[in-house]
Structures are given as structure tokens and as C-alpha cells.
Prior knowledge:
With 470 residues, this protein is mainly alpha-helical. It contains 19 helices and no strands. Helix 6 crosses helix 19 (443-462). The radius of gyration is 23 Å and the shape is globular.
Amino acid sequence: MALGPETLPGDPLPAAEPSLGPGPESPADGDVTAARLPGRRDLLVVGAVAVGARMLAALWLTESPRGLADPFLYQFFGQGIAAGYGYISILGQPTAYYPPGYPYLLGVLQWPLDRLGEPGALPVVVAVVQALLGGLTAAAVTVAGGRLALSVRRHLDPRVVGVVAGLLVATWPNLVVYSTVLLSETLFVTLVAVLLASLLVLDRDVRWGVPLAVAALALGLATLVRPQALLYLPAVVVAWAVARLPRRAVVLGTVVLVGGAVLVVAPWTLRNAIVMGAPVPVSTNLGDNLCIGFQEGALGGFSMNDACGTGSTYADGPAVEVERNSELRRRAVEWIAANPGDLPALSLRKLRITFGSDWDAVRAAESYGADPQLGEGRRRVVHTVFDVVWWGIVGAAAVGLALSFGRRSRATVGVLLVVLTALAGAVVPVLFFGDPRFKMGVAPSLVLLAGVGITWMLARSRSRGREPVS
């Protein structure tokens, strides 16, 4: 199923193709009709760079997870699913604590390994699969970047913008290292990138049935991986409405997105109603996430103390798990109601913790201290390099954002989709607690804006001594 046009590099964008919405997306200008979108060869090259970088990282970093952290638990869940026990906790009880999307992916990969007599090969197989997902992410971002360029500054080559954005994802150090560990970041980023690419293709293609269906499927699957993906839905609808797309298109698009997501999530919700004995849409960790972020003494990041203690754990069985979730939700809501004045400063701390650094994948690869693979000096160097790349991407994205809303560009559908989905991803730590892992939902939008910014800066550099790029 193609995410982008079938045009090869050098082919012009069809001049007669209409748009769903009014405004400057309509290819009426000569410079737009002559613009080139990324072609199949571009997608293959960018995807190959992404896969190659991740495979090299896998050779160095892939290890079986150590310690009782998320990677070990995900592996345990996948093994239980592959063995036919279903989704069970570490104590063997049915659970819905973690969202099921990633555990079931691991279960699907573990099943053939068990039958081949290689059950311990899961980390290696996952690293290979996640390298391929990284290639798909880079290709989707390349498609999305080309489409976004047509909505921002028409004199920027859409093919260059797309390829630059794709290469940023392909070589982003933190994302590369995440592909080597048993965590849901790689899968989630891929689904968000496919969602954005589908929506940006839809923005310019009147034959919008297939792109919209792909977007609905991606939204549903992303929700099963991380339920906060549902925050993207209002962001998309607001973008369509603000850009003044036809009302019928907005309504129909919303119905398809909601309906598709519901169809994907519904089987799991039904399972929870039967197994958990309660209406649990996706997972039961909402109470913990809220209580960690909104409690007496909360510092903005992850911490567990008596304020979130119930004398039980989610692993003690379905009834206890459901009751615990409800109790912790109640405590968090009561704390918020009693301490509204603390929320602004607390929110800023959460954002600083989440977006202040970008080497969290290195900690995950070292099993959060249980399996150190770097000396202290090398670790400091790696952290510094990762942070320098991160802030470079942020700076380029800031330039791209300024161009998107500059005096020569008004807010178009494509721009609004990218910016509002970025804001939807950024609000997650404010709603729960700060953690560098939570910024992964912003990554595709960020590199798209960075692709615009870098391409513009390159054009400015080449134009020195000639007519300046305005």
C-alpha cells in the first residue's frame, strides 16, 4: 500500500490534481507544478540508511534485558502470549496494565522462535524487525516532508525537504539506539509517522479513500501501543476545521478516523470486559500515571512513594488491578482540585524533564544501570553527542516553524496538521509525568519542521552572492 505518489524523481506534480481544501495547497502556481516530490528511489535510499544504521547499532548493543524494568517485562509478556497463556502478569494473572500493542508484537515474534528451539533469540529478532520499522518510519517521513513543503515555502524543493527530514529520522542517534531494545518507542514512532504521511497525502489527493483508511488504521494501532495517541484525533480535526476544509470532508474524515480506530481497539476492549470484569478500553495504568504526576511532593518526573501506594500491585489479579486503577485516578483528581496553583510550575518541570535531554535510549540499552556497557567517560561523551544532535534538530525545527507561519506563508492544512499533532504529543507529560521517553510522539512532526528549516538554510547558503531567498 503506497504512502506516497508513484512519480519517480524528476517527474512533475500533476497540475490538475485538486485539493480537499482551499488555499495555497492548490497547485496553481508554475513553481509548484514544476516541483518534484520524493520518488521511490528516494524512499528506498533513505529507508536503507535507516535500516543500515539500526543494524549496525544492533550488532553493538543488542542484549537480553536485565533487571525488572520495562524491557524485561515486555519480553515476559511476549513469551507468555507465544506460549498460549494470553496476556498475563509476572505473577501469572490476566492483566491489562500495559497497553497490548507491543507485547503482542513480541508474542508474534516469539512464537516461531519457540518452535524452532531458539527462544532466547527474541532480542536479536526484535532488533532486526525494529530496524525495518525504522526504515518504514524514514520513508513515511520522506513522503510527508515532500507534501509539507508544498504547504510552506513554494520555492523550497519538496524532494529535498522530504529527503532531509527522512535522513534526520534515519540517523537520529536516540531513535537508532531505541531500535535495539525491547521498548515500544520504535513501533509507536513508526505508526505516528505513517499517520502523518497518510494525512498529508490526503491533504493534496482528492482520491482520499485509501490514505484516510491507512490513517485510521495507524491511529487505532498506535492507540493499542500508547493510548495517548487518541490526542492526535482532536488535533487533526481542529487542523481540518481551522483550514476551512469543506464541512462534509471534515465530518466524513472524522467519522472514518474514529470508526477505524474503534474497530481496531474494540476486540481488546471486549477481551478486557470479559477477562478483567470491567470496561477497560485499553489499559489500567492510567491511575499510576496520573498519581505519579499529581501527588503531594511530586517533582515532575517518575517517582513512587506512599502517596501512590495501595498495598497491592497490578499483578495481584484483575479485580485488584481494576480497583487500584480507580483508586489512584481518584487520588490524582482530588490532588489537582486541591492544588491548582501548583500546576503551572509542575507542568514546566515535567516539560523540562521530558525535552531537556535526548540520551534516554542509552539508559534503556544498558537496562537502566543493570547492564552497563560504557565506561563513565565514554558515556558522558555519548550523552553530549546525543544532546547536541537533539538541540540541533530542535533549532532547525524552530526555523521551520517560523517559516511555516511567516509573512509569506499562511497556516495551511499541512502545516496545521504537523504543528497541532506536535502539540498533542508534547502535552502528554503535562497530563501525566515527565520522562524523556514521552517525547517520542513529537519526533515525526519535529523532523518534518526541521527538514523545512534545514532546506531553507541550505538554500540561503547557496544563494549568497546571488539574489537572496526571501
